[in-house]
Amino acid sequence: MAATSVVIPWAAVAHRVRGTLAYRGVAAWPPPVRAVLLDRDGTLVHDVPYNGDPELVRPVDDAARALARLRAVGLRLGLVTNQSGIGRGRLTPAAVAAVNARVESALGPFETVQVCPHAPEEGCACRKPGPGLVLRAAAALGVAPHECVVVGDIGADVGAALAAGAHVVLVPTPVTRPQEVATAPVVAPTLLNAVEIVLRLAGRAAHGRFAEAHPAAAPRGAGADPSGPLAPPAAGTLALAGEVRT
Ligand SMILES: [Mg+2]
Ligand SMILES: [Zn+2]
């Protein structure tokens, strides 16, 4: 590992995704995935710290489409979100509920919505990276934690998933720490790509190829991976400072 400050070209993240898939292999992914538990801020909607205003809810690109694909194959959906603004006195539970309702009106319903309202110093078991929210969501859906895939944007989401015994796909944003990217079991460049990975590994994709799932996506330069192109990111590169694992 190199501990230098760098900018990771977007292709490096895509390479990491392909490398992870090649390493783990579809067959190595344990039994059926039945539910997908999604982080809210920075994953489904652009992060607005301590947001209590539904008017500020802005879904990320393709979020509605990504979730529709999961619902279409019968996967159960849950929302798992840390809202420490409540514990810090900066948000009311009602404001958080109003924002969650706006997210559902924009992206469709979740069968369970699990919120940790605690501040970090309260030492609760539900605040991610603790396992509580994932365990509660799984229980609410009547599935086992190992039948769940958590999709989130930071290391706390990865930690919560692993602590609960769930699978996880990290979709980094420019504020995701490089170490969190480097240590996540599976990384996807976009939410839609994360959904494709979930479908593929759950054995529910039509043919299991990004190219077929994404006919309109342009290959990334000459010599594009024959396993298929990944959709290009919104910005040309994902700037990250710090450690890169090659
Ligand atoms: Mg987040
Ligand atoms: Zn909590």
UniProtKB/TrEMBL annotation:
Gene3D superfamilies linked to this entry: HAD superfamily/HAD-like (3.40.50.1000)
Source taxon at top rank: Bacteria
An example Gene Ontology CC term for this record: cytoplasm
Pfam families from the UniProt entry: Hydrolase_like
Molecular function, one GO term: metal ion binding
PANTHER family per the UniProt record, alphabetical: D-GLYCERO-BETA-D-MANNO-HEPTOSE-1,7-BISPHOSPHATE 7-PHOSPHATASE (PTHR42891)
Protein name according to UniProt: D,D-heptose 1,7-bisphosphate phosphatase
